Amino acid sequence: MRATSRLSALTTQLLGPRSSRHYATMANDLSLKTEYTMLSGHKIPALGYGVYQTPADVAEEVVLHSFKAGYRHVDSARVYRNEGPCAEAIKKSGIPRSEIFFTSKVPPRAMGYEATKSSITSSFSQTGLDYIDLYLIHAPYGGKEARRGTWLALLEAQQAGRIRSIGVSNYGLHHLDELESYIHELEAQHGKGKGGEISVGQWELHPWLARPDIVGWCRERGVVIEAYCPIVRGQRFEEPVLKGLREKYGKTAAQILLRWSLQKGFVPLPKSVTPSRIEENADIFDFRLTDEEMKVLETGEYAPCSWDPTTSND
Ligand SMILES: NC(=O)c1ccc[n+]([C@@H]2O[C@H](COP(=O)([O-])OP(=O)(O)OC[C@H]3O[C@@H](n4cnc5c(N)ncnc54)[C@H](OP(=O)(O)O)[C@@H]3O)[C@@H](O)[C@H]2O)c1
Q1: Ligand 1 centroid from CA 3, angstroms
Q2: CA atoms within 13 A on the CB side of 10
Q3: Exposed, middle or buried by CB within 10 Å (0-12, 13-18, 19+), for 134?
Q4: Hey, whose CA ends up nearest to atom 4 of ligand 1?
Q5: In the chain, what percentage of residues exceed pLDDT 90?
Q6: Alpha-carbon distance 104 to 81, whole Å?
Q7: Which one of 23, 80, 171, 228 is the catalytic residue?
Q8: What is the set of domains in the chain, with CATH numbers?
Q9: What is the pLDDT of residue 86?
């Protein structure tokens, strides 16, 4: 058993399941340096920096700016076509590789065992990195066999040490249950722990799409939850529910939404190519929303601003 796993088993005994310890304590101790321990045993920074729709020719510069602002976590994907310049920024930053967390994702059109292996190979040739911290299945498309094949390819890359942690994005509850069954099947064939673990799940999450069912599923199992579109692409900044909070805390709507996300226990992944906004979105550790404000912000609506593959029955 690795030392981190032993420690984790001990804290689980002392404090209850990792998920409850994680969610109960973090709102008080949050800082730009906060990290969570994933089921893989590796750590993930609590704030990420998203690069969807960040053009390749500006990606290196803005990722470097995010490092200057204190982020240590870049959320990219094959389909964003900017893995190369993100990795260039990592190399040029002067920050030890071990202190930066880099994510990529299997494109929806590369589902299945062979296509996923090619996708992983392309990520390494584009980035020149020795390892990738996290590789997610971007969306649950392609059918059951393709999803299983993709998981197996990711698992093999993890076992080979090229990818440190693996997980999913945009999975509905039915996709999560299907994957969990497959993991149990692999464990029955190859032994405990040999089916892999869903270290991270990434979904669109914000006060108008809080996904309590999926979030509950992850919390019961200690899956770290990442929030994409955490500031709803700026579309909800004028909502009345944000006005009083903006005035009370002297913070922008984006900062209130990011703070809500952090206090929910999510890992928000705000995107911006604007230097002042990159800094603004990281300046969220000097105030704390009350429990009442957290509740008021959760609207109960189901209003995605992006795609929603969770509902796919593919
Ligand atoms: N797994 C998936 O399927 C999936 C889907 C979508 C997104 N993601 C990930 O999540 C990240 C974030 O999602 P997102 O980019 O769609 O949405 P988002 O972060 O909610 O919003 C980004 C938009 O808000 C603007 N913005 C950023 N900070 C601002 C601020 N402080 N004040 C005002 N406007 C601000 C940005 O403009 P400027 O850039 O012009 O400053 C951009 O137009 C992505 O980059 C990606 O890494 C994943």
Answers
A1: 37
A2: 7
A3: buried
A4: 228
A5: 90
A6: 10
A7: 80
A8: 5-298 (3.20.20.100)
A9: 99
